[in-house]
Design brief:
3 strands, three-stranded antiparallel sheet, Arc Repressor Mutant, subunit A, about 140 residues, mainly alpha, elongated
Length: about 140
């Protein structure tokens, strides 16, 4: 169909609010920083410089592989700085860059929002589950 190829999807944006290239780039960045493991890593590093093992202990459920992948992505995007010290055994530390610190402020607000609305969210979930239990029972019956 003529005129429809190479069209950017606009889900989540008001038509014309951002040029297509900006939407694509912003989505890529938001996917990285909005990833649950990135949020936890940035939150943990917001408390100060950490070694890999300290991050792993501080982030419940993250595997070493996922922590490595997350740290590399955040480092590539300029959010995390990795410093390797030439000692035996090698010591590696991670910290937020100045740009990462500004992101940590935003993520801190998101975490505070979640904490302050936890009771409301749990009540909404319970209400939803009660209202939709007959639907689930019928679907599986």
């Amino acid at each position: 169909m003529e005129g429809t190829r190479d069209r950017e999807p606009t889900a989540g944006c008001a038509p014309g609010s951002l040029p297509p290239v900006s939407r694509c780039r912003a989505r890529e960045i938001l996917n990285r920083v909005g990833d649950k493991w990135s949020v936890y890593v940035i939150g943990c590093l917001g408390e100060g410089t950490r070694r890999f093992s300290e991050l792993r202990r501080g982030i419940d459920g993250i595997t070493p592989r996922m922590l490595t992948v997350t740290l590399r992505g955040l480092e590539r995007d300029g959010i995390v700085r990795r410093t390797m010290y030439p000692v035996i055994p090698p010591r590696v530390e991670y910290e937020l860059t100045p740009m990462g610190k500004t992101l940590q402020e935003t993520i801190g607000q998101l975490i505070n929002w979640a904490d302050s609305h936890l009771a409301e969210i749990e009540a909404a979930r319970a209400d939803y589950d009660v209202r939709n239990a007959p639907l689930r029972d019928h679907e599986h019956g």
